[in-house]
Write a structure and sequence with these properties.
Blueprint lengths: L1 E2 L10 H13 L9 H21 L6 E4 L2 H16 L5 E5 L4 H14 L2 E5 L9 H7 L4 E7 L11 H11 L3 E5 L16 E5 L10 E5 L25 H37 L4 E3 L9 E6 L4 H10 L2 E2 L15 H5 L3 H6 L1 E5 L6 H19 L2
Parallel strand pairs: 1-11, 3-4, 3-5, 5-6, 6-7
Antiparallel strand pairs: 2-8, 7-8, 9-10, 10-12
The structure holds pyridoxal-5'-phosphate.
Pyridoxal-5'-phosphate binds next to helix 3.
Length: 376
Amino acid sequence: MIYLDYASTTPIRKEVRETYQMLLENYYGNSDSLHDVGRATAKLMEQSRAAIAQLFHVQKDEILFTSCASESNNYAMKGFAWKNAHRGKHIISTCVEHSSIHNALEQLKETFGFEVTYLPVYADGTIHLEDLKKALRKDTILVSMMLVNNETGAINPIKECAAYVHAYSRAVFHMDGVQGLGKIPISLHDVDMATFSAHKIYGLKGSAILYKKRNIELLPLLSGGQQEQGLRAGTSNAPTNIVFAKTLRLALEEQEKAYQYVQELNIYLRREIENMEDMIINSPADASCFILNFSDLKIGSEVMLNALNAKGFCVSAQSTCSSKSKAISHVLLAMGLGEVRATHAIRVSLSHMTTKDEVEKFIKALKEIHHDYRTK
Ligand SMILES: Cc1ncc(COP(=O)(O)O)c(C=O)c1O
């Protein structure tokens, strides 16, 4: 199979796998135990936390280990909202967020009486600062926005939005940085909280972090022991947390080279698809080059996905977390691209591991499917 679904998840990097294997064998101690085996595990886990903090230029106690970005997002939404409800019950987000933000906010709204304003996006897939300015209120306690959209690659103006929120309100700014990490430069100094996942950067599944500035208080979503500053009870998944630092370091070290390389592939793929009859690109021109979303106006997403799969290609139609629902892409609809494009969308996501030959084969397969379908 030719894998072109790296925004969904990535294979584990060899160095990460080997380190993880070593950690599983040697660092099995409970990091809260007071004996030497436990202490050795705790020491490595705290070293990993410190290394992650250093890579992000933040403080060690601002990094929390979680099990996935969905969990980090739930902490940032519900953990924050519940702890800070006395300051106000209004939250701002966007209409194109990942389900782990959207559904957490819907729960806060439906069950806990919070008010949520979802900012619109435009044809370029991004939110506009003017809308945020209008939405911000005295009782707004939280603004959450994704850096890179997982379906189209559209990049939001995080720096400007966060700066405005900080200048004109007391609200806290959270960024879902999952699809940006290891791909484009990220500054955590602009934001108050941020979410990242290891399995999108050639690391382990079940491994993520929540960055949270020191002064920000969250309500624990898991009650019990003292782990992760008492916010997330349960014996720490130490080997997984330890190897996150290496995963991140390797991803950041290769980021620039990977970007240059993938950008070339993206330009080539985009041009080829643009030149095909009945094909239309949905990703904005300045989107992250790691994601290219397009629609074949004659072939629906499911038919195309299955046809590509039969020819040996792995791609997605919309967010993988929504792939089993029949719902059409809420992201493309929000961009105003219409129902046909939203129901015919295909997301290709590229990597430094993708070869030009794989892209050429993909284009050939696309042309064959397109031709077969038209001559049926
Ligand atoms: C933007 C974004 N946020 C959050 C997530 C959830 O990540 P995880 O699988 O680690 O829960 C994803 C996964 O696709 C994503 O793309």
